[in-house]
């Protein structure tokens, strides 16, 4: 499968995941699908909460599912949001940095209308495990 086919497959999976979003407050449904280093696709959707701060974004749901099932690296993630392209928030960018410093981020409206970025473009001068000077094993 070439890169375009992989991206289109991830976008389709993100759109499907978007259908499960729980967004009674914002109405802004987001779906994400990532390809991990284990070759599997993991999906997530955003889940809101009435007290707002416990709300979790689709990207983090997908990353946490992947890591909890043994994946160690995010290779590429596709994000589908609203009626247009929605970029990962700052917190999601930092979580993606932890598990995919050189990950590819695809923001999409659909399988034909998307933009591709490297995480470093969206999170320049990032902070990662290497900045802890060996205090924590990454």
Describe the 3D structure.
The chain starts with a helix and ends in a 16-residue tail after the last helix. The chain has four helices and five strands, in the order H-E-E-H-E-H-E-E-H. 30% of the residues lie in helices and 24% in strands.
Distance between the first and last residues' Cα: 31 Å
Mean pLDDT: 95
Q: How would you name the oligomeric state of the polypeptide chains in this document?
A: single chain
Question: Number of DSSP helices?
Answer: 4
State the order of secondary-structure elements, H for helix, E for strand: HEEHEHEEH
Poorly predicted runs of 5 or more residues: none
- What fraction of residues sit in β-strands? 15-25%
Secondary structure: elements and pairs:
Blueprint: H1 3-18, E1 30-36, E2 41-45, H2 58-68, E3 74-81, H3 90-99, E4 104-110, E5 113-118, H4 119-122
Parallel strand pairs: 3-4
Antiparallel strand pairs: 1-2, 1-3, 4-5
Helix pairs in contact: 2-3
């Amino acid at each position: 499968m070439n890169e375009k086919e992989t991206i289109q497959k991830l976008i389709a999976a993100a759109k499907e995941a978007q259908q499960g979003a729980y967004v009674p407050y914002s109405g802004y449904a987001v779906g994400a699908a990532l390809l991990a280093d284990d070759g599997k696709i993991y999906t997530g959707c955003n889940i809101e909460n009435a007290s707002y701060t416990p709300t979790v974004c689709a990207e983090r749901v997908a990353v946490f599912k992947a890591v909890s099932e043994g994946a160690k690296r995010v290779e590429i993630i596709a994000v589908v949001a609203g009626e247009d392209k929605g970029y990962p928030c700052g917190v999601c960018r930092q979580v993606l940095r932890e598990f995919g410093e050189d990950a590819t981020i695809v923001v999409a409206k659909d399988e034909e209308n998307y933009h591709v970025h490297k995480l470093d473009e969206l999170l320049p001068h990032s902070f990662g495990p290497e900045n802890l000077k060996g205090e924590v094993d990454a």
